[in-house]
Amino acid sequence: MEQLSFGLPALPRATVRLLFFALRPDAAVNAEVDRCLPVWRGRFGLRGKAMAPARRHVSLLALGPRTRLPAGHVERVCSAAAGFSCPPFEIRFDRIMRFGGNNIVLTGGNGNLATDAFRQDLATRLRNALPPQHGRFTPHMTLLHDRGASFATSEIEPLGWVVRDFVLVESYRGEGLHVEVDRWPLADGAAVPPIDALAAT
């Protein structure tokens, strides 16, 4: 399965602070993942270091490296994101698989159509502020990185949550650090049109 690529040229690891929109699991889901991980390790022969709960997420849209964005761009994007409206929706994972090389992830056999629709609506809202988003979007949550494990995509007991907010994350590549830049709650109502002012950024 093809991994979603942000289509960005390689930069020195120490300088990359990559901004992206994401969904984050709640505390109950993180606790359930922590409970299931030892079982999955035994069942699938996983040996890699697990992703810290604070870094678990479902990537949605890339904004790009902070150092390459114009002054004030992040603030304008955050203002536009604050005007986005969408009802809460459910995301559900029922499979574990290798994805994009050595990533071991949870994904959903049903395609998580609500997540895909949410991402498309958010992209429309922010269309003048985002770089091209390359690759096919497959909602997934990375558990760990493991070069050696070899197993077929397998079904697991379903695990998911009701998405009630989305976040802008700043990832310090190579440092294992994710900083939450901003968070926005979901609420009933139609999404408002894109802000034309973003075209000037």
UniProtKB/TrEMBL annotation:
Query: InterPro entries per the record?
Result: Cyclic_Pdiesterase (IPR009097), RNA_CPDase (IPR004175)
Residues in the signal sequence = none
* Gene Ontology MF annotations: 2',3'-cyclic-nucleotide 3'-phosphodiesterase activity; ligase activity; RNA 2',3'-cyclic 3'-phosphodiesterase activity
Q: Which domain of life is it from?
A: Bacteria
| This protein's record includes keyword Nucleotidyltransferase | no
Q: Gene3D superfamilies from the entry?
A: Cyclic phosphodiesterase
Which keywords has UniProt assigned to this entry?
Answer: Hydrolase, Ligase
Indicate what this protein is called per its UniProt record. 2'-5' RNA ligase
Species whose genome carries this gene: Mesorhizobium australicum
